[in-house]
Design goal:
The protein folds into 2 domains: 225 residues, no CATH class; 123 residues, no CATH class. It is of the alpha+beta class. Strands 3-2-8-9-10-11-1-12 form an 8-stranded mixed sheet, with helices on both faces. The protein has a 4-stranded antiparallel sheet with strand order 7-6-14-13, with no helix packed on it. The protein has a two-stranded antiparallel sheet with strand order 4-5. It is 31% helix and 23% strand.
């Protein structure tokens, strides 16, 4: 959008939420609950994580009071936007057998309210675009995903600090959002630099009636974003992916990581782009009604690779290899971009602290056959 960025005092967050609700949106934002950050429906700005900050490391996540007044200082938690569009469990089809005989099958399409997502990080915006490519822009669009995605409004928050597990700069997904948002906020001590990214965002920004951002405020925003990028503690060298992984499918590192991996699937559950799922029929006891249900699954589940009595990924090393190679290599062949957005959730929420950036670097630098 060509409109000059505005500047809003922090008190305008409440005005923004009220304006979104008046337009018929439920508002979903980040909240601290059960020792972590999650996206949930909020009624007011009081629910936002003002004065909280998180600490992350491989296999470690904590939120704690910071003593400051920053509203969006918690970078991310285990929850992304994925469950709001790709439901963890949902009925797809209801089949009934009426008394007169025959059967009747009906779709069970959801009818969600228009939803505004407040406080979305650039990596999660990139994850939504990745899921759009899978569920909306592939050969057969998914109507269930599409029904939830249709009226979404995104208020992004640019990252002015990163967690130790972030590597969005390597994946070109942050720390600044460049597309996919309606409004984008950059938090400063006294307020927010705000940009419109769509006509709907421009219309809402006009209603908020903020002042135009000064040159000094814009320069401060630029410095903050540059400092965040420069302070990123992890990197992933993507220059020769996917060829690196395809050429090393029998590397000794797969066995090494398998000795540490629990095959628990935590990484796939917190990943904002993973889309593995199972479908099954759930009949009633009387046999007169049945639901076809879809629910999240994981390539780390042993049964996920079970086909006609044969399991083609029987060992943990096979399942970890499948996940990493698909995420960073064959995903590109399928969808034209990587399946990783650099959010670092899989690193923080792995119980044994496995770090995919470390694993890729080991495959790159260590000999294929390591002494054991």
């Amino acid at each position: 959008m060509s409109q000059r960025p505005g500047f809003l005092p922090k008190s305008c967050l409440e005005t923004l939420i009220v304006a979104l609700r008046e337009r018929g949106h439920r508002v979903v934002g980040p909240v601290v609950r059960d020792g972590a950050l999650f996206f949930e429906e909020i009624e007011s700005a009081d629910a936002l994580p003002r004065g909280w900050r998180e600490s992350q490391a491989p296999g470690s996540y904590r939120v704690e009071r910071s003593g400051g007044e920053a509203v969006f200082d918690v970078v991310n938690g285990p929850g992304s936007l994925k469950p709001f569009f790709f439901a963890p469990r949902e009925p797809l089809l209801e089949i009934q057998i009426p008394e007169e005989g025959g059967f009747r099958a009906e779709e069970t399409l959801p009818e969600p309210p228009p939803t505004a997502f407040l406080g979305v990080r650039p990596c999660d915006l990139a994850a939504v675009r990745a899921q759009d490519r899978i569920f909306l822009h592939d050969r057969v669009p998914d109507p269930y995903y599409g029904a939830r995605r249709r009226d979404a409004f995104f208020v992004a928050v640019q990252c002015t600090r990163s967690a130790s597990t972030c590597f969005c700069t390597s994946m070109d997904t942050g720390p600044a959002a460049r597309e996919g948002f309606d409004l984008a906020l950059t938090e400063r001590d006294d307020g927010f630099v705000v940009r419109a990214g769509s006509p709907a965002g421009e219309e809402l920004l006009a209603v908020l009636d903020g002042a135009a951002a000064s040159d000094e405020q814009l320069e401060g925003e630029t410095r903050a974003l540059e400092a965040c990028a420069a302070g990123m503690q992890r990197t992933l060298d993507t220059r020769d992916l996917p060829e690196l992984l395809y050429d090393n499918l029998e590397h000794a590192r797969w066995e090494d990581v398998a000795e540490r991996c629990l095959s628990c699937g935590n990484c796939t559950q917190v990943c904002p782009t993973c889309f593995c799922h199972d479908e099954r029929d759930e009949p009633t006891v009387d046999g007169l009604r049945s639901l076809r249900v879809r629910e999240w699954s994981s390539c780390f589940d042993r049964g996920h690779a079970q086909v006609h009595g044969k399991n083609y990924r029987p060992e943990v090393r096979h399942r970890y290899r499948q996940w990493l190679v698909h995420k960073l290599a064959s995903w590109i062949d399928q969808f034209g971009s990587s399946g990783c957005v650099g959010c670092g959730r899989c690193i923080s929420w792995c119980p044994t602290g496995i770090d995919l950036t470390e694993e890729v670097e080991a495959i790159r630098t260590l000999p294929r056959e390591q002494p054991r």
